[in-house]
Amino acid sequence: EQDIFIYCGVNSHWESHTMELPILPRGLVWSIYASSECCEKKGRRITDRKLLLGPRSLSVLISQKEV
Q: What whole-number distance in Å separates Cα of residue 38 and Cα of residue 24?
């Protein structure tokens, strides 16, 4: 079995901010598991290690195998 990494991004500011994500082991990418911004972001894969968080928002990310 492979480990699953979980990361929570929180922006408590009233403006949007870009957050740099931690480096994952080779073969894994970040995927948005849940977001307070909108349901359209759910499942989106992050390949550039940067996540734009809207004002006063929260995103939960999990690791997934790179396709």
A: 25
* Closest-CA residue to 21 (of 61, 57, 67): 61
In tens digits, the chain (67 residues) has pLDDT values of 778 999 999 999 999 999 999 999 999 999 999 998 876 677 788 889 999 999 999 999 999 998 7
From 47, 45, 56, 44, select the one nearest 9 (Cα to Cα). Answer: 56
Distance of CA 6 to the CA centre of its chain: 9
pTM recorded for the entire structure: 0.85
What lies within 8 Å, CB to CB, of 40 at 6+ separation is none
